[in-house]
Fold this sequence. Notes:
Rossmann fold; 6-stranded mixed β-sheet
Amino acid sequence: MTFLFAVFGIMSPIATTINSISGVQRGLIAGSRIIKVINSESSVSEGRIKKETFDSNIEFENVSFEYNKDTEVISDINFNIEKGKKIAFVGLSGSGKSTLLDLVIRFYDVKSGRISIDGTDLKDVQVKPYRSMFGIVSQETMLFNDTLENNIRYGYKDCSKEDIISACKIANAYNFINKMPKGLDTNIGDRGVTLSGGERQRIAIARALVRNPQILIFDEATSSLDAESEKLVQEGINESLKNRTAIIVAHRLSTIKDCDEIYVFESGKIAEHGTHEELLISNGIYKKLYSLQFSS
């Protein structure tokens, strides 16, 4: 009997040890893959010019791009983004909108043609200072198991409490934060589980604004929200766009009606462009998309 008790007593530690060895092996493999990615060379060329200010325009000249050889994602793109203007990209999924954003932010370099900022080719500018000019709000908001304040200052630790409060007010987030038990010191759980979708997006807008970016990018920032949340987030977006340059990608056309210029993409090319009113009058792709969304 004593022997059986001894056997049962050591079985659990043995099983734990075996499982731990298996876990360590998985961790080592995962770690080696992560290190491989970290150590891999960037496909984006590092220029010598330190560009930290946006003075006049970003220009696309005959730009084409492909992820795989012989399969162009965007082709022969020509347009101009002037400082202070609000530009929108619309079109069906896979038409090249998000790829164009990746080229603007320099996640990739163009395969042919040229993108320039204030007359300087993007390939000639240093990547990190250039990217510091942008504030990005995407469809997928990445929040951490930490306080609201630390989530907002993530990536920009030098900002003050006043900067954070100011960004929250512009993003239409200050009121709901004030109603929380600890305000900005409230822990929001893993991936912001304690917040609604609209609240998470407004925190993402505040995070983008706290660094006072010169160019704001909204990539489908309201596409996954219900009507009420979308209204609150859109109010935050509208407030944040005042006196700023903005690039907006949207499926919901109601969010871009006031943009200075709307570019409609189809199969990697610009099919038409103009203001909201001009595109409705032209009776093209934009009019069809608009009619589908507002047919009721």
